[in-house]
Specification:
With 143 residues, the protein is of the alpha+beta class. The chain contains five helices and four strands; from the N terminus they run αβαββααβα. The longest helix has 22 residues.
Length: 143
C-alpha cells in the first residue's frame, strides 16, 4: 500500500473510532423517579387516613412494588404527612389495581373520592431521586 492510502486509512480509523466506541458504550443510567405526596389531613381523620394508606401500602408490597417512605410532621410547616415512593410503570399500576380489586378495595375515581374524605388538601409531584448530589451534578453536565 502506498503511504498516502495508509495515512488516509489511519486518519479514518482515528476519526471514526470514538464514534464507534460511543455507539457501543452503555447508555448513561437514567435517574430513578419518585412520587412525593404532601398531605393535609382533615381534623379528626388522622387515624382513618393512616389506616387507609397502610392497607394500600400492603397492597403495593403484595404486588411487588417498593413501599413508600412516610414522614409525620412534628414542627414547622403546615403539612401532616409526606410520602416518598417509587414512580409506577403502567404494568406495575395494573398489578396494583388487580391486587386491590382482589381484596375488594376501591380503585379509580371511586377510590379518589374515598381518599378525599380524609384530607383537606394534598399535593402529588414527580421528582428525580433518590440520588446523590454528585449524580445530579453528573447528569446536569452530561453531554
Amino acid at each position: 500500500m502506498n503511504r498516502s492510502i495508509t495515512c488516509g486509512l489511519l486518519l479514518l480509523v482515528a476519526l471514526t473510532a470514538p464514534l464507534a466506541l460511543a455507539q457501543n458504550a452503555a447508555p448513561a443510567k437514567e435517574p430513578p423517579r419518585a412520587l412525593i405526596g404532601i398531605y393535609h389531613v382533615a381534623p379528626g381523620k388522622h387515624v382513618d387516613f393512616l389506616k387507609w394508606q397502610a392497607v394500600r401500602d400492603a397492597i403495593d408490597k403484595e404486588a411487588g412494588m417498593s413501599q413508600a417512605q412516610w414522614y409525620a410532621h412534628t414542627d414547622g410547616d403546615a403539612w401532616d404527612y409526606l410520602s416518598v415512593g417509587p414512580d409506577q410503570t403502567p404494568e406495575q399500576a395494573k398489578k396494583v389495581e388487580a391486587a386491590m380489586k382482589k381484596h375488594g378495595l376501591t380503585t379509580g375515581f371511586k377510590a379518589n373520592l374515598e381518599f378525599r374524605q380524609f384530607i383537606t388538601s394534598h399535593t402529588d409531584t414527580f421528582a428525580v431521586g433518590p440520588v446523590t448530589v454528585s449524580e445530579l451534578a453528573d447528569w446536569a453536565t452530561a453531554k
